[in-house]
Amino acid sequence: QVQLVESGGGLVQPGGSLRLSCAVSGFASNYHAIGWFRQAPGKEREGVSCITSSAGRIYYADSVSGRFTISRDNAKNTVYLQMNSLKPEDTAVYYCAAALFPFRETAQAMGVPRLWGSWGQGTQVTVSS
After folding, report:
1. Can you give the pLDDT of all 129 residues of the chain as single tens digits?
2. Distance CA 101, CA 88 (A)
3. What is the spatial distance between Cα 110 and Cα 128, in angstroms, rounded to a whole number?
4. How far apart are CA 32 and CA 6, in angstroms?
5. Could you give the CA distance from residue 89 to residue 4 in angstroms, rounded to a whole number?
6. SS3 content of the chain, % helix, strand, coil (to 5)
7. CB 99 within 8 A of CB 50
8. Coil, strand, or helix at residue 107?
């Protein structure tokens, strides 16, 4: 059973930075990748970024490319999302999830809910003046 817990959300001014953490419990063989998703009120859930368990592939949505960085610390079994140059449009609840099956096209996989079998509880990110 793969369990995930997000942390690091909060209130930040436009242009500021936050680092989200996703603590993962489980064996690496039990999941193919860790992804970050977000959902703002009244909007659909959006795939933000993901990293494969072997760190062989990294994906960023166009909306965050150049501003966000995903990374992992295997010793701590944690995946991070460093968010810089934050905008009000980044305001959302951010979730991490574990992909239980391999995939070929990352952008497509981010939009296939059945691939992501384990989800964290979410952490609120608010970007406001």
Report:
1. 789 999 999 999 999 999 999 999 876 667 889 999 999 999 999 999 999 887 678 999 999 999 999 999 988 889 999 999 999 999 999 999 999 888 888 889 999 988 998 999 999 999 999
2. 33
3. 27
4. 18
5. 25
6. 10, 50, 40
7. yes
8. helix
